[in-house]
Amino acid sequence: MREMGTTERQAKVQEMQKSAGPAYGGSFVASLVSAFTLALILHGLRGEDLHFGIIASFHIWLGFVATAQFTGALFMKQSNEAFSINTSYQLVCYLVMGSILTVWK
């Protein structure tokens, strides 16, 4: 297997930098949709305290996010480490969103 030259590496880095902006933008929009949907669910459940927000957000993450990511990881043959990092990141996001949404008045 041949190694990449400096020019090839620089071109690859520039290509990755160009695609990073739209990826961050899309990720931001997806996070807003998740937060809005979580807010609707918590409001419908009349969640108004921090404990409820954390517990409900955990169960929503477990039932929808973790299971969907697990299925995707199985079909993409993703490593356990990558699955754990991605899913843990989503767990933290949902717990923070649920906490903010239930105590924010």
Explain what you see:
- The protein is mainly α and 105 residues long.
- The chain has a domain of 58 residues.
- It has 3 helices and no strands.
- The chain is elongated, with a radius of gyration of 18 Å.
- The mean pLDDT is 90.
Features:
105 residues, mainly alpha, 3 helices, 0% strand
Q: Could you tell me the strand content as a percent range?
A: under 5%
Structural class category: mainly alpha
Cα distance spanning the termini: 59 Å
Order of helices and strands: HHH
What low-confidence regions span 5 or more consecutive residues with pLDDT below 50? none
Major sheet characteristics: none
Q: Percentage of helical residues?
A: over 70%
- Mean pLDDT score, rounded? 90
- Beta strand count: 0
Radius of gyration: 18 Å
Shape, per Cα inertia axes: elongated
The DSSP helix count reads 3
Assembly type of the chains comes to single chain
